[in-house]
Structure formats: C-alpha cells, structure tokens
Amino acid sequence: MKNIFFKKFIKLMKGELSGEKRSKKRFSWSINESKYLDIKKVKKLRFALIKARASAPDKLITARNWFMVELGLSTGLRVEEMTNLMVSDLNLNDRQPSLMVKQGKGNKPRTVYFSESFKNECLLYLSRRNKLGIKSDYLFTNTAGRQLTKRALQKSFKKCLRLSGLESHYSIHCLRHTYGSYLYKSSNHNLRLVQEQLGHSSIRTTQIYAGVMNDDVRKAVKNLYMD
User: Could you tell me the residue range of the domain that residue 194 belongs to?
Assistant: First the structure.
C-alpha cells in the first residue's frame, strides 16, 4: 500500500493525475554577431565570389558558389529549400519576380519575392549553366547534372568563407539570418512581412530579428533624453 501511495504521490507532483500537461519550453534562442554577417562581411564575401566567377568563366563551381550565396542573401531560403529549388520554380517574367518554395518547413509552400537586381543574377546564372551544358531542372547540380545534397552546399559555403577570408565558424544558415535581419530593418520593422518571406509558422520566431540591429540600439541609447 505504501508503494502504491508513493507512486501516486510522485505522479501528482508531476501533474499527471490532475491532467496537467508539461508546459512547453519558452522560446529562448537568439541571434548574435556569430550567426549573421554585417555589411562589411557581406561585401567582402560577394567581392571574392564575383572575382572567382570572372576568373573561371568555363567552370560551373565558381558560378554555382556565387549564385548560392546571392540566393541566400536575396531570399533567405533554408539550405534544404536551396537543394530542392528548380529552374521551373523561378518566376522571372512577372513585374514582381519571385520563386516558389514547394515544400518548406512543415511541408508548407510559399512564394518568396525578390528584387529586380537578383532577377538579373538568376538570368546570368541560368545562361552560364546553359553554356556549360547543364540540362537538369535542379538549380544546384554537379558537372554531371545530379542534384547537390545539403552537405555538398554546406561544404561549398565553407570554401566560400576561406576564399573570402571570413571566419570559419559561420554556417550557410547565416545567409538566412543575414537576410532576415536586414529585411526587418529595410521593411521599417515589418515583422509580418519578414515572417511571410522566411516561412516562419510563428511570429515569435521572427521576433528574434528585432534585437539583431545593434547599431540601432546603440544610437537609441546614446540619444536617450537628449534634446
């Protein structure tokens, strides 16, 4: 009897007998400077990849690495979304260019809009692929036209970091965080717009970008109570 009472007491303390469910963990992760690129690093990365692309116009890998980084900085796609992206998913004919993510996180499709400038970069990359004889509908392939894996894109990004002289701790996911951070700022702090572009199911996830722009925080604190 004592053992039965003791077991019931333990369950009661855990909230099992009262029908209570364990509360979900609070959303606590955040973004710091090790997870996104500032403007100087974005420019440094872009310059190195444009230079590499220009120096080897007959190689797929230099064009692919350049476009991979531009895609991340211009759309904020997850790495898995990048690997699954197809030429037919690009909408370059409408007044507002966009791409379709058919299976985002949670198998949710979404439309991601991008700039006219990135549209021109898409056309340039597609032209380079055609000249090199790549027939696959997948945007990221090897020279044989086979779809690249997530691991392959991650390794390619590490090579881009070495080429540009940036710190090796960055992952390809930093492109998504960089896009989200600066989109939040350029959209005049429109969290809903950032949420839709990134495909977040909860606005709480998007709110992490509200605290990233440290320059804004410094200016606000510095000017506090000043005439």
Answer: 39-200
